[in-house]
Amino acid sequence: MSEQNYSIGEVSTMTGATVKTIRYYDEIGLLRPAKVTESGFRYYTELEIWELELILGLRHIGYSIKDIRSILHNDKPVSVYLDWQIDALDRQIDHLQELKAVLEATRQSASADNMLDYIREITRFMNKGIGQKKEFIRERIDQGIVGSHTPETWKEQMLTALLGYLPDPVRLTKDQYAAWMELLAMLEDQGFRVHVERAMSMFYTKTESEQVTPSDWQSSYLGLAARAEAAMHAGLSRYAEEMRAIAAEYVSLLSGLKLRLTSETATQFLQRSEMMNPPQVQRYWSLIRKLSPKWELHFKALEAIKQTIIAVAANDSDEEE
Asked: Are residues 148 and 295 in the same domain?
């Protein structure tokens, strides 16, 4: 590099850094001038100008003075600092995307009258740490669905199962943020809690009489859904023998009774199922589906089972596959 000397004003013009900034970097020992005259004038060569441009570039992408000092002193490989900064930028991007989702969800879901309240509630939730968010959601699920009406033997299993349907509350889209807020409001609504308690009391009465353990029940439930998914993947229709077998086990599991699946028992089950799933409960599960796309195939499998039960109830199950 050339040994030509440049004044601090010339360096400022060449790099875009203010004279004040260049002086500050000298004062803290980050960028020393090549020489300082007896009158106190600073002069820089192309080497210092190159270092200054590097410092400015690193500052622009978010590195601290401390990290830049370490980079210049070769304390660690530059690749380490690059990895750190990429991670930091990823977090910033996530945060900005989250803020955008909040604003879009507010515009989409809130009315003009309650927009400020909506922003307050959604930012209160957003500003919680991941652990706090999970605990907050756990408490709402516990109070809003599990509640005091759930038998002690079922509480932890039911809570774990319900939480399993929920995603980690990070990187949500605007639609998912809107769904979160509606879901949280629903869980605090006393009317919704009454519907859930009424519906679940019927379920617990049946399962308790059969003396089935919560873990065995959950395992059977997920197993039936998995079998239905496999049947769907194989292209089986709702009239297929395998789907009828799955539907029969599903009815027995949810009713707590060992029943042969006939038009009569299928009709009775559907009527009881409608009582257990009023519109408010159905809305809850539609929000869960919106929040957790990974469970979509699972829900489609449950719908396929229901369609088979409807077919049996309509007494049209003897049609050709």
From this structure: yes
Distance between CA atoms of 310 and 38, rounded to whole angstroms? 96
Rounded to whole angstroms, the Cα distance separating 167 from 182 reads 15
Q: For residues 59 and 46, give the distance between their C-alpha atoms in angstroms, rounded to a whole number.
A: 20
Q: Are residues 103 and 239 in the same domain?
A: no
Helix (H, G, I), strand (E, B) or coil at 114: coil
Residues 179 and 261 in one domain: yes
Q: What ranges make up the beta strands (E) of the chain?
A: 6-7, 35-36, 42-44
Q: 0.70 cut: is pTM over it? A: no
Residue 200 to residue 150: CA distance in whole angstroms = 8
* Beta bridge pairs of residue 7: 43
Question: Which residue in the block uniquely carries the two structure tokens 């079998």?
Answer: 227
Same domain, 14 and 51: yes
176 within 8 A of 291, measured Cβ to Cβ: yes
Is 266 exposed, middle or buried (CB count within 10 Å of its CB: 0-12, 13-18, 19+)? buried
| pLDDT tens digits, one per residue of 115-164 | 676 666 666 666 666 677 777 788 888 888 888 778 888 888 888 888 88
Contacts of 205 (CB under 8 A, 6+ apart): 256
Please count the structural domains in the chain.
3
**Largest alpha-carbon pair distance within the chain?**
105
Give the DSSP letter string of 148-171. TTS-HHHHHHHHHHHHHTSPPSSS
Domain hosting residue 98, numbered range = 78-119
pLDDT, one tens digit per residue, over 195-243 is 888 878 777 776 666 667 888 888 999 999 999 999 999 999 888 999 9
